[in-house]
Give the backbone structure.
Amino acid sequence: MNNKKISVQCAVITCVIVFLSGCSWLFGDQGSFRERTMDYKKAQEANPLRFPQGVRPDGVSELYPIPRVTKKGVFVPETAEDIPRPQSILSVDEDLGIEFRTDGEITWLVVDQTKEKLWETLRDFLIASGMNIESEDQNIGLMETAWLKPRAVEEEGLWSSFIDLFTGDDKENTREKFLLTVEQVGALDRYQIHIGHVTRIRTDKGLPSVNAEEWREESENPELLEVLYAEVGDYVADEKSRRGHASIMSQNLTAMPSYLMTRDGNDFPVLMMQMDINRAWIEVGIAIKKAKLDQQDLNLSLGIYYISLGVDEDENPVVYEVKLISAENGVQVAVQIDDDTVAPVEVSDTLLIAISEKLG
């Protein structure tokens, strides 16, 4: 009985071994029923057909021409299970024709607008953000900023500085620049905006030039690009909304002076500007430079210019906030120490008068 049981077990084990080996023979990488989806990658490129000398072939037009494509932004499967996924839409404003799209690590902005108006809006955004434009070509859709010094983060503290000694981070000589690429989508007035970002360390030889291949590399600071895309989208939306109402507002705006120094209910100085917030932001920024005020920083999202002003030579300079606020009749410009503290009347008068004299 035991011999019979052992014989049955041996037979079962033998069948299992044969079955498993058969599976690999049938369904393995070299099996008869193997997965053939990716076989096209193993295809060898053959030399093109050449006609003998003296034979003139008749030209045949392509029924289905193959367009030129680049690897960037094109789906490339790695395995047979990979399937192309639709591009994700982060947000859509149908009324203003603005979309945020993403595909993997790539993000871009799609805007329904003529190229001339969109180009002008992007230039205004860079100027309003305190960025100098190094080169631009509207025909090919490229706008490149000059090298910028990253904004200092005061909250980093002593511990971060201690770590920098060992990591080799040189924040004082770190510079960054951006490249805006505007490409048409289809045949209508619809354009997509891509933003490239590079970071370099300034040496004794200066800063290197950036080639096209380096612009295609992934940014070292994707969070910064995400914020920049959002700010560009908000700025374009504000500008399109303003232009949509320009014809209605034009008569009212021209009937009043563009700039007016006045006082609020608490008798603090206020500069009134009869224009939209985006245009007022640019005008104030230019006036600050013309007045040679010591601008320490700016924040376009909050509408604040940070101006350093020394009251006395023996005292340390104080940083005041020149803040722009949208109002029913235009834009109000006021000076404050922070959101809870208004600047002294003398300081407000000094800064606002200096700015107003350089407007226009």
Remarks:
- The chain is about 30% helix and 25% strand.
- The helical segments are 2-27, 115-128, 157-167, 212-215, 222-244, 246-254, 277-290, 345-357.
